[in-house]
Description:
It is a single chain. This protein is an all-alpha fold. Helix content is about 80%, strand content about 0%. The protein is built from nine helices and no strands. Helix 2 (about 40-50) packs across helix 4, helix 5 (about 85-120) runs antiparallel to helix 6 (about 125-155) and helix 6 (about 125-155) runs antiparallel to helix 9.
Amino acid sequence: MPIMPISKKRISIFLSCxxxxxxxxxxxxxxxxxxxxxxxxxxxxFAKYDVYGSLKxxxxxxxxxxxxxxxxxxxxxxxxxxxxxxxxxxNDVKGIFRLMFRTAIIALFLLSASxxxxxxxxxxxxxxxxxxxxxxxxxxxxxxxxxxxxxxxxLNFDISFEAFHGIFFTQGSYLFDASYEKIVxxxxxxxxxxxxxxxARYSLMAALVLGLGGAAVHLLTRKKHIxxx
Length: 229
């Protein structure tokens, strides 16, 4: 039985799906990384929740920088500050960021390959028009995801927090006692309430760029298409 050739339309749909999926992942992964490794964000949060007062006698900024270097796989945790249980949890967190970095590289490769395939398969105007429509669609999807993220945090933060940690960590391994475990004093729950909101802000900025850029390119390609006709 002869193998039926794959139509150009199906190839376009397949490539479009890859572009959408990879773009969404990259926007949210990079937004998360920007917040997670932003020293200024932590300084504002430490002041907001009086971490400096709760951990008097410790150089909070230096400890936090060591933790961030550790999560980036570029250093060790501050000696004597965290318990073995806290250290185990931070190792789990580092593993998640390591996976996020590696997956982002794969997503970037797939996105680049799919974009190149679109331009090889289509003429320039058709390719730009398709990418413009995809950009606008991705912008809308980002806005929808951000709205869901925002309302899930605002309406019931505790359930959202538990659900997130339940997905990525062993049950109970992320629960600590502030009376003798410093990790929840250094990183209070309020910080994890503010972080998703900041992530949403970064991703919405990306959505704005994608949406406006896509709309501009769509108008230009439409004018060129009309001029050619």
